Amino acid sequence: MTNPIITGIVATFDRDNIDTDQIIPTEYLKSIKKFGFGDFLFDGWRYLDEGRLDMVSDERSKNHEFILNKEPYTNSEILLTRDNFGCGSSREHAVWALRDFGFKAVIASSFGDIFYNNCFKNSVLPIILTKDEINHLFEICSSSPTNFEIDLMKKNIMFDDESSYSFDVKESLLDRIVNNLDDVDITLKHKNHIEAFEQTRRTQRPWLFDYSN
Amino acid sequence: MPLTLYDKLWNEHLVQTDDTNESLIYIDRHYLHEVTSPQAFEGLRHKNLKPWRLDANIATPDHNVPTDRGNEFDAASIKDEVAKIQVVELDKNCNSFGIHQFDITSNKQGIVHVIGPELGYTLPGMTIVCGDSHTSTHGAFGCLAMGIGTSEVEHVLATQCLKITKLKNMQVNFNGIPQRGVTSKDIVLHLIKLIGTAGGTGHAIEFSGSYISSLSMESRMTICNMAIEAGAKVGLIEVDSTTLDYVKHHSNLSDSMFHQASEYWKTLKSDLDANFDKTINIDVSEIKPQITWGTSPEMTIDFDANIPTQEDVDEASHENLLLAKTYMGLDDSKTLQDLSFDRVFIGSCTNSRIEDLRDAASVINGKQVSEDITEAIVVPGSGMVKAQAEAEGLDKIFINAGFLWRDPGCSMCLGMNPDQLQPYERCASTSNRNFEGRQGNLGRTHLMSPLMAALTAINGKIIDPLS
């Protein structure tokens, strides 16, 4: 079971529509692995040179103005941003990069639909709050490095000793993160159901099964 | 209860539901390409599983293949060692699991969303998925089609199902007759400008109205393709005689099977009084050619309009506007017509079909690509499109005008293969995303129709298509 409490430093990205091409540029999609993308997270903003898969972060020219290159944000675990985070390309590599960097939660006023789904497959929790709540959290984080505490069971974000915002997320999705469940295993428990459905379909819509390559 | 087309497709494929959470939806067709599949195949191996239903899967390499391949090129010929591994890996995975692939040497290889329909693998009423967000393209055939992540690719391979929650319904009615020089690309860019890149989030958008009915399948695909740029992972259009004619010509179904299927396909439309959560009505006769000025597809304006300034947007958007203008190098430009272009790209899953190439070729009129343009490339979406264009002599028109005539692939739509912008180069592009770095590090993308892109190639600048 994953620790149901996420506590960490909040990195703020005060920008709408951060697309998955910004989160991880296409160059790195050439990898055939599922891990090792953390050094390339937000590559275009994080480095001054153009990156390649075989490059090592420490040897590259960094943009020291960029938040993830500044202490203590190099250890951020929570990302706070605005509207429509993760829009665009379906690349799951975007979530892999956030996860590999160390992010465990992303807070935004809305997410791209495909990105949102991908998060739950990789133990990164996407949290949707209202725009007013997001504005308030940005204010809180503006002056100095801030820690939030996110309770997955209570579904709330504590941003100081007394105050918190609650958030909504589907139980079955949250369950996947808390219990590290694998979708394929869960679905294959319904193997007989799928087989029966397919058999009916074969009879009713035969053209779908009639295709010769 | 009256149902929308999306509701009907959902119900038709529903294996199991838990109303409050997620449902299991049966998947009829699964397209695969080299970039988002290797980790999924690895997952299958790890779990010691085989694909649930081999004949539902079709694969082709498209994202990182070079487009100047010429004859006798195979996967081993790819110079980029990392890209080569991915294409070779797709070959290996398809061979070892028994999945049908149109590989890099096939004359039917192409962009997955172009070859699926033209080879008849996309049939009306199907559920279609692919590890690529532009899978919404296939919604043009009355399909429930959507992009998925790699974990879901593995899930579909292993179970033939997708575990998802139902979307809301949104309807966009396009009525009227467009002005000359205005294409389906302009119409969909106009919609994205209007509702924003999050406007369709959480919704399936059904495109309807007299304008949609009048369109060819190619134009319908362009519109559904960019539904994702309006935030909707599903875009769809009802089945009509245009759909059936296309399918009859492109599928291998026997006459009797086609006839039987058609009876069902004709029911694939929203009921008259079906309820949509959101409805938008747009008169297309007022729409001018649309071009993006910024770094998000919603940053779109009429080709002759002023580029927005801080006074034109609300205060919350000042920062976004400033960042986009700086990235695009627009500090001193009032309109898009002031800009000088370096490159032109005609291609991508949005605009690389035969109709797009005809459109682009039609405005060349024996003229030459401007001396200001470093390179103008035309990349047909598939081997079939390429052959058709060559049979019509379109390749000669492009080549004689100074365009480069390439081999099929995603090409300069995304900086993953050798077709990339150099830093600060400005490109007139028929693709779908103008994100920072999308066409190459620090490259500047302006999205537009094939017609406007071809005119920009000839003039080096954006001009009025009616002039």
What does this structure look like?
The complex is a heterodimer of chains A (213) and B (467). Chain A has 213 residues and is of the alpha/beta class. Chain A has one domain: Aconitase, domain 4 (Alpha-Beta Barrel), CATH 3.20.19. A seven-stranded mixed sheet of chain A has the order 4-3-2-1-5-6-7. In chain A, strand 5 and strand 6 form a beta hairpin. The N and C termini of chain A lie far apart (45 Å). Chain B is α/β, with parallel strands linked by helices. Chain B folds into three domains: 148 residues, Aconitase, domain 3, CATH 3.30.499.10; 98 residues, 3-Layer(aba) Sandwich (Aconitase, Domain 2); 170 residues, Aconitase, domain 3. In chain B, the strands form five sheets. In chain B, strands 5-4-3-6-7 form a five-stranded parallel sheet, sandwiched between helices. Chain B is globular. Chain B starts with a helix and ends in an 8-residue tail after the last helix. Chains A and B meet through helix 4, helix 6, helix 7 and helix 8 of A and helix 2, helix 3, helix 5, strand 8 and helix 10 of B.
Question: Tags for this entry?
Answer:
heterodimer, A: 213 residues, alpha/beta, 31% helix, globular, B: 467 residues, Aconitase, domain 3, Aconitase, Domain 2, 5-stranded parallel sheet, 16% strand, iron-sulfur (chain B), 3-isopropylmalate dehydratase activity (chain B)
